[in-house]
Amino acid sequence: MQHDIETLWQQDKDHFVHPFTDFSDFHQSGCDIIAHSEGAYIYDIKENKYLDGIAGLWCVNIGHGRAELGQVMAEQATKMAYYSPFNNLSNIPAIQLSAKLASLAPDNLNHVFYSCGGSVANDQAIRIVHYYFNQIGKASKKKIISRHSGYHGTTYMASTLTGTVGNNEGFDVVNNLVTHISEANCYRMPEGMNEAEYCDYLVKDFETNLAEMGGADQVAAFIAEPIMGAGGVLVAPDGYHKRIFDLCKANDILYISDEVVTAFGRLGHFFASEAVFGIKPDIIICAKGLTSGYIPLGATLLSDEIYDVIKKPQAKGAVFSTGFTYSGHPVACAVALKNIEIMEREKICENVLAVGPYLEEQLRTLKDLPIVGDVRGSHFMMCIESVANKETKELIPYEANVGKRIAQHCQQRGLIVRPIAHLNVLSPPLIWTRDTVDEVVSILRSAILSTIEDLKTDKYL
Ligand code: PLP
What we know:
The chain is an alpha/beta fold. The chain has helices spanning about 5-15, 25-30, 55-60, 65-80, 90-105, 120-135, 155-160, 195-210, 240-250, 270-275, 305-310, 330-345, 350-365, 400-410, 435-455, and strands at about 35-40, 40-45, 50, 110-115, 145, 180, 220-225, 255-260, 285, 300-305, 370-380, 380-385, 415, 420, 425.
């Protein structure tokens, strides 16, 4: 079907309120309209072809254009598109998916509460945590510890948890509920520390904040991404998560692992918390890769201990009064089941474990370029940090938009990477091969070199 591109652009500007968009820029230049996609590639409305370096938005894990997922959607929608999950009603895909997730998650996590995305899944986690402590007579435990640079979404509650710079500019948050402690940023750790000392410093920071918040009697939960995503792909020092987890256990604080990005293969495992970081959280959050982004679905995985409490009615006949029309939507759950089946059949996690270290190693070769200060991440979750001075780590002025310039040069060469201020993030579909990696690194090198020339021309370097 032929589209009138000018009309689409105009309608887009006039009617579609885009999330996370600079409206001043958007109203001038408009958007790239992505029209179709296949495998590792996307195509815009003018039929320009790009390698998708960000899997949509950390989510199209098994790659684009999977007919099997389209078929399963059509079959489930035709057989039984929707029926209520409330009041002792259920549906087959939601039941089967819950059992499957329980089998994939750490062995203490056997209960699944569904929503339509990561923000709401986090929001529900906090609501359930508060309910849990109310039920066991510890109602003073309300406060939550989160981290600066952590990203947990943008519902009212999730944005209160979120600690990324500028995220809540001009918006309100829930007052006095969340304390943000230091993020773990090994590239910018305090002068003179080694990684082990930095880990001690971060653990101390947790303990100090816990005391200032009123101690274990006041604090209900800690929430963290195993590797921070939108905050700049920050990998914590070795042992950090385990030490914070142990502190949480010692203080009766529930540990929420926000695996919206890291689950479903990005680090080579269905869930990273235990497999990579050696912890069994009380709650795991997932979304995105759960359906490879083919349909919205979020899940809050709960431990047996939490479920044993919340399953008891508050009073005779009282219901567990939280949930959504679309909790456990049959079409979304059917897609998730098929997505997991494909991941297992095609050994997608194994591909990440094999190609991921090569992606890390090859991206690190870019560190010889004069503005590449850091290349960090793990497996299919990587980031390049640009700086003006590699010795001092001084940043290139914000208004130079270095991340965006690099992204634009990549796009001109057929690769989509995500700019976040002075960072460029790579979170590709998990089907990349070593050949794809070689192509990507060669494009990035040329794009960064062109960016350096531009920055010099514009007197930013
Ligand atoms: N948690 C993490 C770690 C995320 O990266 C995101 C989104 O990027 C969210 C939560 C929010 O998920 P959603 O955008 O599906 O609400």
